[in-house]
């Protein structure tokens, strides 16, 4: 991507395909190193995190008097689960790093002022990503309770740990990514790839796609998790549309001022030539 020191020589921030690929590789390596470091940290906090993830099943036994248990179905399952949960924790812990690398790769050609504005992406994206995961954590007990309500009387819920943890991780990851989408949408508007009016005109299809994504992303068949995912996404999407419209107005004023300055310069040059 375009380097800051090359802005004067390359004002549009353009690069050859080879340079794009090299920059992508560098940012991918940095992100991978951060994820690996976060995974190591996740390895050490694995046990308390696993106990917290299994809490909804324990509540079914203690508070509601049901018979439910988590079981490993293979010899290597505990190790596989350790790796899976540690990597997921690594993604969460390293999210400021890989989100920044992603943003820096997407927005290479911004001007200095826009770059300062774009730094707010990390300040917004990381809390939103974590907020999505936290919301999934709040939804989880209700989702488990609703889904296990379909168990007939006299039967026991013997749940495979790998299946249950995969269910939880998918739920959290879906919520986290869903909360990032409006920020990415504003980022695309910031670099001029899409306008706020274009998004606003398609608000009906946007609402439909958000609901469709919520239905597909929510790993359970219950409407509770879908509702908890769809409503915040719609709020964030329409907030992003409002920010895009404001940014479009700011860009239009800046372009108008630039054109007026160019016209004034041209008029001055014509006057000098006429003397």
UniProtKB/TrEMBL annotation:
Domain of life: Bacteria
Transmembrane regions: 28-46, 81-105, 117-138, 158-191, 203-221, 227-246
Coiled coil: none
Keyword Transcription regulation: no
Biological-process GO terms, alphabetical: intracellular protein transmembrane transport; protein transport by the Tat complex
Function: Part of the twin-arginine translocation (Tat) system that transports large folded proteins containing a characteristic twin-arginine motif in their signal peptide across membranes. Together with TatB, TatC is part of a receptor directly interacting with Tat signal peptides.
NCBIfam families in alphabetical order: tatC
Name listed for the protein in its UniProt record: Sec-independent protein translocase protein TatC
Organism: Arthrobacter crusticola
Gene name in the database record: tatC
């Amino acid at each position: 991507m375009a380097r800051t020191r090359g802005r004067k020589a390359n004002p549009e921030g353009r690069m050859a395909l080879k340079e794009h690929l090299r920059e992508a590789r560098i940012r991918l390596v940095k992100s991978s190193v951060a994820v690996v470091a976060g995974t190591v940290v996740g390895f050490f906090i694995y046990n308390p995190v696993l106990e917290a993830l299994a809490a909804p099943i324990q509540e079914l036994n203690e508070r509601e008097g049901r018979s439910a248990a988590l079981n490993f179905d293979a010899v290597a399952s505990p190790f596989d689960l350790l790796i899976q949960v540690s990597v997921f924790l690594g993604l969460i812990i390293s999210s400021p790093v890989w989100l920044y690398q992603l943003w820096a790769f997407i927005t290479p050609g911004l001007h200095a002022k826009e770059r300062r504005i774009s730094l707010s992406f990390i300040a917004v994206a990381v809390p939103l990503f974590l907020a999505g995961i936290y919301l999934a954590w709040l939804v989880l007990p209700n989702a488990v309770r609703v889904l296990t309500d379909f168990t007939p009387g006299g039967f026991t819920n013997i749940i495979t740990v790998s299946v249950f943890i995969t269910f939880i991780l998918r739920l959290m990851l879906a919520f986290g990514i869903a909360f990032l989408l409006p920020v990415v949408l504003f980022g695309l508007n910031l670099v001029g790839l899409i306008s706020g009016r274009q998004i606003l005109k398609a608000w009906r299809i946007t609402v439909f796609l958000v609901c469709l994504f919520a239905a597909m992303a929510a790993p359970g068949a219950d409407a509770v998790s879908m509702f908890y995912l769809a409503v915040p996404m719609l709020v964030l999407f329409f907030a992003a549309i409002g920010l895009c419209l404001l940014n479009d107005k700011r860009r239009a004023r800046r372009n108008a001022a630039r054109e007026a300055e160019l016209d004034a310069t041209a008029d001055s040059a014509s006057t000098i030539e006429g003397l």
